[in-house]
Amino acid sequence: MIKVNREKSRWIIISFVVSVILLIVKFYSYYLTNSTAILTDALESIVNVVTASFASYSIYLSSIPKDDNHPYGHGKIEFFSAGIEGVLIMMAGLFIIYQAVYNFFFPHELEMLLEGMALIGFSGLANGFLGLKLKKEGKKLNSLTLVANGKHLITDTISSFVLIVGVAIIFFTGFYVLDSILSILFSFYIIYSGYFLVRKSVAGLMDETNPVAVSETVGVLNKERKDSWIDIHNMRVQQYGGDRHIDLHLTLPYYFDLREVHEEVEKVESALENEFSGVLEVFVHSDPCIPEKCCHYCQMKSCPVRQSEIRTKIHWTAGNMSKNQKHYHELADGQSS
């Protein structure tokens, strides 16, 4: 875990250094050209620098082990970090709209557009390479902060190259009012990308269901399913940064003794722990089966207390595993496999 956190910090530091360099390049490009459209790219680089700084702190904080005041650890700070990044992006977009509207009514001549395009192209390539790398490393290290930072840089790259096309049109046509129009269009795109990050941040802070995390958990449990696991219900999956917490109820034959129940619980825990990287906590509550209700879908072929034949096998899904009730109420039609 220490190695993982060091790797996260290393990539955030690289992101910060590159962002500072590209910030200087882009503002120099704006200084040369006096283009509001290029200013939009420069202002977004300020966001890159600020968020890289905050991301570094959030990764440090998320690496601190859980304590009495934070029983689930500090991983949620990564959601907060992504939210701050989104808000800053939206504020930059609103400022750009203001500047573009001003320049629309009070236009000014643009200069050295070719040199400006070349500098923006260089910064776009650098951002694109770094963004793809951060996104890849973020998924490998299970870091929302790195993934969010990478996606932001990739978005910045796309906007930079579309911006170059727009500035080229201005250069060849001499229609300078396009500079303001292009800036406003980019601003709406920037605001939308910022909103998307804020939306994801709020969802994480509010413990909104993560469909990907739930789907992965369901897949593992279906793959490792044992005949003695009559059903799994009331399952909750929470993702806090790189930490994952799974709670579930496991229905077992009522005649199992305490040792057998403990062994089955350990099998469930091991199946999940062996599949997922990072910090994983699994809490399993064991329930006894109800013979007159569970026998028809229980897969224990040698059950000594069976009261009815096996008539169906209920397929485990995110829907029936999240419900706070055993699966005996489900009918074979549309639920069995």
From TrEMBL:
Transmembrane segments: 12-33, 45-65, 77-101, 113-132, 153-175, 181-198
Entry similarity comment: Belongs to the cation diffusion facilitator (CDF) transporter (TC 2.A.4) family.
Keywords: Membrane, Transmembrane, Transmembrane helix, Transport
Native source species: Belliella marina
Alphabetical list of PANTHER family matching this protein: MITOCHONDRIAL METAL TRANSPORTER 1-RELATED (PTHR43840:SF15)
Membrane-protein topology: Multi-pass membrane protein
Domain Cation efflux protein transmembrane: 12-206
Compartment(s) where it occurs, according to its Swiss-Prot or TrEMBL record: Membrane
SUPFAM superfamilies: Cation efflux protein cytoplasmic domain-like (SSF160240), Cation efflux protein transmembrane domain-like (SSF161111)
Domain Cation efflux protein cytoplasmic: 230-289
Primary location group: membrane
InterPro entries: Cation_efflux, Cation_efflux_CTD, Cation_efflux_CTD_sf, Cation_efflux_TM, Cation_efflux_TMD_sf, CDF_Transporter
Protein name: Cation diffusion facilitator family transporter
